[in-house]
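User: I'm putting together notes for a lab meeting next week and I want to include a structural view of one of the chains we've been expressing. I don't have a solved structure, so I'd like a prediction I can at least talk through. The sequence is below, exactly as it appears in our construct file.
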Amino acid sequence: MKRESVIIIGAGLGGLECAYMLAKNGMKVTVLEHEPQVGGCLQTFRRGAALFDTGFHYVGALGEGESLHTLFSYFDLMELPWKKLDEDCFDEVVIGEDTYAFANTHRGFYERMSARFPKEREGLKTYVDFLKQVGDHIFGVFSEGEGKYGTYSLLSRSAYEFLNETIKDPVLRKVLSGTSLKMELNAPTLPLYTFAQINDSFIRSAWRLRGGGSQIADKLVEGIRTMGGEVKTHAAVTSIKEENGRVTGVNVNDEDWLEADWIISSVHPAHTISLVKDSKALRNIYRRRIAGLDNTFGMFTANIRLKPGLLPYLNRNIFVHRADADLWNVRTMKTESVLVNYSVPEPYSSTAVNIDLLSPMSWNEVKKWVDFPVGKRGEDYVAFKQAKTEECIRLVERRLPELRGAVDRIFTSTPLSYQSYISSAEGCAFGIRKDYNHPMMTVLPARTPLPNLLLTGQSLNLHGVLGVSMTSFLTCAEILGMDHVRKELGIENRK
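Assistant: Thanks for the context. Below is the predicted structure for the 495-residue chain, given as structure tokens.
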């Protein structure tokens, strides 16, 4: 029997997970990554003694029996040095001068929040129960009938409308939206499923990874190679070859042709389609539709190396917002919201080594420098980043007054940086913008008009570590069959 071959374009989380699963099922897998480092948003970089994450900061639903635990157990990732955030306050939301704690477990979250907003007990119960139902049915995406809590039914409902219908107090609505930097809270477009699934996963449990997200990628690569697969860096796919309505191979670095029975792309769908130069199957109307999809906003990041022993480590995330910030209509031209994320220090250390400050930033703010190479974007780009950094620190130090004095070095990045180093289209943080008004147009399937060219990654169904991991199994199901995937995950009897 012929051993089917698969080429996977891009060594981000989705591409590596697909490679791992297919190699585990006996397929001949080759992963091609044009960057020198695998991992995509999981990449880390070191500045002196400080290790910084590129895009990985924390995950939800990693506790025993929870959804990400099921997926990561399959990939043998649970042995990594995970650290659970404080259950009584894994996320802290600061709005103006007021502070609110997000607690783990649905009961804990409800009790903590209803104590602050006793008049909203009924609305909060409806809110929490709904999130729980969505999370309880998360594996329904692998089944035929999803019911009212399924992915596709909720992708056509408005998250903003649900929140306003359920919660009457405008302050509480803002608080519940306060961890917004895990997604793009765009009122006219955000599907209810995205909002509910992501928030529910973190309410169940929240975790950091000591030593950075690159460990996830490295562990997956180790597994792929152990099972006979290949992972190649500095290997840019410059075109995809089609013959008689099927893809047959890829050109690497404009030099070598590699053939395969299947091709899976984890890079942006628009870029993927552009690689198929001549095709009767990919009609112009399809190409224009994919190319015309909007991307989500990006992030400005200030990676701060701290002076030793000055800033206490907090085992939580802090979301700091101006009192007048409109969280559902982000005005990225000024700094209204900042996520403060701590890297996990060495065991028994009580002080932080480095922190990251993240704030939304649109592509329009930086695209005038797009034609300049890295490191040669001029003094005005440097000044732009310095001003943004100062805005972030000024907002955060209202909560952490000791921060400014603890700063040793600051390293900054914009959406341009993310496009340059991890090939994120327009530096977008969450892939293609999903639109509940047009779910059939903006929520992409793994299939393409070419039957053996598949897509994966955060631009399809869901973003984030959990979303991408779910999507990787959906992509592999196109090859292995859904029943086989459910059996592999051990979820035959789960909803």
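A couple of points you could mention at the meeting. Residues 82-209+295-427 form a domain with the Polyamine Oxidase; Chain A, domain 2 fold (CATH 3.90.660). The radius of gyration is 22 Å.

User: Perfect, that's what I needed.
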